[in-house]
Amino acid sequence: MIITDMHVHSHFSSDSEESPEAIIRTAIEKGFPCIYFTDHHDIDFPVHPSEPDMNFQLDFDAYFSVLNELKQRYEKQIRVYIGVEQGICPATAPKLKALYERYPFDFVIASSHLTSLENGDPYYPSYYEGKDPVMAYREYFLSEAENVTLTDSFHVYGHLDYAVRYCPDQSFVYRFEDYRDIFEVLLRRLIEKGKGIEINTSGLEKIGYPHPHIEALKLYRSLGGEIITVGSDAHRKERIGAGFAEAEALLAETGFRYYTVFKNGQPEFIRLS
Ligand SMILES: [Zn+2]
Ligand SMILES: [Zn+2]
Description:
Layout: H1 20-29, E1 34-41, H2 60-73, E2 79-87, H3 96-102, E3 107-111, H4 133-150, E4 156-157, H5 180-192, E5 196-200, H6 202-206, H7 214-222, E6 228-231, H8 244-253, E7 258-263, E8 266-271
Helix pairs in contact: 4-5
This protein binds zinc ion (2 copies).
The site of one zinc ion has 4 residues, from loops.
């Protein structure tokens, strides 16, 4: 059994209204001995006129203050770890070092929500306009491979094929072979830097399978990748731990015998039973 959820959002994220305390209580009810908060922080996020409240800036001081207080209050029932989902694109990646030297996060997920600050957000249909879908995805995966060269300030790369969620025809199916060359570069760079990837089970709800594509997991494993975390990307407490049985089956199917948790930025490997 997977004993913790390493990708959870609370109301510290622009796109969640969930209280941190409700998350902790839910995690206790579900029998998790520990829980991770990974709220959004997207430096320079270009606020879209249609959604002015979605700025994805995290108030680090308030975040640590509230979570540290809850961590102490619930320490007899559950261990609370403070993480972040750091939005990353080539323009922002070089700024992360200074930020993460100042704040003692247990765990940093780097996620591509943008390929660039201008029209680089796959969430909006304009990202795909005038582009062949294969080229649009290639652009997204190439930017991830570039990001890895620009910073060391993270532990795992989040939802590697997130752009698929918003593909124009809503088919959510893609031919991994069209991108294998880029994934090889991306995954090799992650492995060389000692960085991991995540299985993000929110894909089950949104695209019918967890992020990333099973072929990406197999490739990561065949290249020697070992660091793999599991997270639901819950934005509501009901979603905490959702799809973890599927994630566990996927890990077994792709040959992983361990999954990973992080404490104080250090990986610990937990054997799948
Ligand atoms: Zn994300
Ligand atoms: Zn997330």
